[in-house]
Design goal:
This protein is mainly alpha-helical and 234 residues long. It has one domain. Helix content is 82%, strand content 0%. It contains nine helices and no strands. It has helices at 2-47, 51-82, 86-90, 96-128, 135-159, 163-174, 177-185, 188-191, 203-228. α2 packs antiparallel against α4, α2 runs parallel beside α5 (135-159) and α5 (135-159) runs parallel beside α9 (203-228).
């Protein structure tokens, strides 16, 4: 009986999480489609392999990836508190952990779909257009940094109650993108291959990827630990 009851509770929890994820996805999918169109335009400009189109397209990709991350976090977390729709969720048979997992999964879906399109499109363009193949590692490191920023911003939004502090975290982290791009370009084992046809997975590049992945995992573990300690939404 206890096992059956436990399985039934788990099924109920999974169903509620799924419904909350679907709710967020249905609300924001149209706006997300607009961002995807802009990102495809950016990829098209990069793929033209002209100096002006490459820089315009790359800038468009960076700006839109930052915006789509902020859009998802702001819409599904910050605005929910600001517009007082959180009490509706609280009225449902939902625990703080169920709310946490639903928001984490929904925001990752909202962000990782356009992010995956951009990363996949960039890999294709580097390998199958006149763009130098050496751009691949440098580009992936930058995308990894954008993903890390997103995870940290999402973690802050899941934990912090202040809209001002959340915006401060998002904007503050975004200011490190340009220094990061220049910094990894100055690492000899990475920078010297950017304009060549050589795809080199150097030790510094692998170490940076590992650090980015570790930060993303740490964010999930820390925010999960904080929400597990909650007994209510307040």
């Amino acid at each position: 009986m206890n096992t059956a009851s436990h399985d039934s509770q788990e099924s109920h929890d999974m169903l509620m999480i799924k419904l909350l994820v679907i709710k967020d996805w249905q609300i924001y999918q149209k706006q997300l489609a607009v961002y995807v169109v802009g990102l495809l335009l950016g990829l098209m400009l990069v793929g033209m392999a002209k100096p002006w189109s490459f820089y315009v397209g790359a800038l468009l990709l960076l700006v839109l990836l930052i915006c789509v991350g902020g859009f998802g976090i702001g819409s599904s977390l910050l605005n929910e508190r600001k517009e007082h729709t959180l009490p509706f969720v609280m009225s449902l048979p939902v625990t703080p952990m169920m709310f946490y997992w639903s928001k984490l999964i929904a925001n990752l879906v909202i962000y990782l779909i356009p992010f995956g399109i951009v990363v996949g499109g960039s890999v294709f363009l580097v390998l199958f257009t006149p763009l130098p193949d050496g751009l691949l590692v440098w580009s992936l490191l930058i995308y990894g940094f954008l993903a890390t920023i997103y995870f940290v911003s999402l973690g802050a939004a899941l934990v912090l109650e202040s809209e001002g502090w959340n915006l401060f975290v998002q904007i503050g982290l975004s200011t490190f993108i340009s220094p990061f791009m220049m910094g990894i370009g100055m690492i000899d084992e990475i920078g010297k291959h950017i304009k060549t046809e050589n795809i080199v997975w150097s030790l510094p590049a692998i170490a940076i990827f590992a650090a980015q992945f570790a930060v993303m995992i740490l964010v999930v573990l820390v925010t999960r630990w904080i929400h597990r300690r909650k007994t209510s939404f307040l």
